[in-house]
Amino acid sequence: MLVNQLSIHNLRNLDNPSLSFSSHLNIIYGPNAAGKSSLLEALYILGNGRSFRTTKHNKVINDEYNDFTIFAKLESSGIRHQLGFSRQRNGETAIKLNSEPVKRLSTLAKLSPVQILSPEQYDLLVKGPSSRRKQLDWGVFHVEHSVLSLWQKCHKILLQRNQLLKRQSPYKDISIWDKQLVTLSEQVTQLRQAYCDKITPLFRQYCQDFLGQYDLSLQLYPGWSDRKDIGLQQIYSEQFEKDKQLGYTQSSIHKADLKFVLDQTKRAGDYLSRGQQKLLITAFKLAQLKVMQEYGRQTPLFLLDDIGAELDAHHQQQLLNVLANQPPNQQTFITCVHLEPLKPLIEQYDDVKMFHVEHGHIKEVSVDAAAL
Ligand SMILES: Nc1ncnc2c1ncn2[C@@H]1O[C@H](COP(=O)(O)OP(=O)(O)OP(=O)(O)O)[C@@H](O)[C@H]1O
Description:
The protein is α/β, with parallel strands linked by helices. The protein has helices at about 35-50, 105-110, 130-145, 145-165, 170-210, 230-240, 240-245, 270, 275-295, 315-325, 345-350; strands spanning about 1-10, 20, 25-30, 65-75, 80-90, 95, 100, 115, 215-220, 255-260, 265, 300-305, 330-335, 355-360, 360-365. It folds into two domains: about 1-115 and about 300-370, 3-Layer(aba) Sandwich (Rossmann fold), CATH 3.40.50; about 125-295, Up-down Bundle (Glutathione S-transferase Yfyf (Class Pi), Chain A, domain 2). It contains eleven helices and 15 strands. Strands 2-1-4-5-6-7 form a six-stranded antiparallel β-sheet, covered by helices on one side. Strand 6 and strand 7 form a beta hairpin. It binds adenosine-5'-triphosphate. Adenosine-5'-triphosphate binds near residues 33 and 37.
């Protein structure tokens, strides 16, 4: 996917920019609090319908207005589209694709996939499983869209099952749902596992490059006991009394986790330093990007927020080397405060565009004017 033009109205501190982008590399630079991340936020919203920085939608709307609007001219799977997204303070959202209203956020996700590496994600290893599960499902969805309807069916049945459990219904009433639930759960898990199998060798390779000697890998926890001698159906019958006491189903795809494992058994988050965790997340994101490039329906935008802030010079250089070797259909946006470390990367691209941001004002500048 490719964003050619973007207009933003009333988002954070930005003064309503209209911008044309390079189809390859876009560098957004300027001092702290200028509005660089806000531009990436607008691009991210186009593909996800929400910010990567906050779950509170109102925070994204400029303080003096009641709504924000983002309008983009983009190419998705080789077809040109016009996409508009607006959100009001009361939560009302309007999405228009080629002037036609769109109801489902999954339409956005299919149309304009966006991958982001930002400081907000560096604590993925030490957070709860839900944020890792989101990352996993993002990847699975973009390789295999059918996972969404399986997931939704599964979710619906689980809600019904949980209602029956809360009502203390007998096992015979609840077990009617279990067969279908087991089948759907196993299908979702197979797709998740297939994705893990694709991403793991790439992840291990990037970890090797960034972290050297460590034996790091990914393990999928499906959301229930991974004992080989016992299936999900049996788990449901064995856990029934406890589920009834709790009023919900303990074992489900909603409990899945993508575990980052050191030396086959240890939780990587318990052993790696904070800097190493950042490198591991960087390796994971790059591996996700590569899986999308190789197996996805289309290549996502790649957004790198604050590239210089969190990595030392050596590792920043390694990351820049990876970025310099991206395929020609990869559109990338990088924000930074200092341009100097990006000089070798910029020199490798013929059609890089540079944008200077200050006090919410974004101005395109030539590479020469950026005084590199
Ligand atoms: N709802 C809002 N309305 C107006 N201004 C806002 C709103 N939310 C945030 N801001 C301001 O927008 C500015 C831009 O923030 P942003 O995070 O985009 O800057 P940045 O250039 O990425 O900074 P840094 O380099 O420090 O990460 C900040 O000064 C912030 O206070």
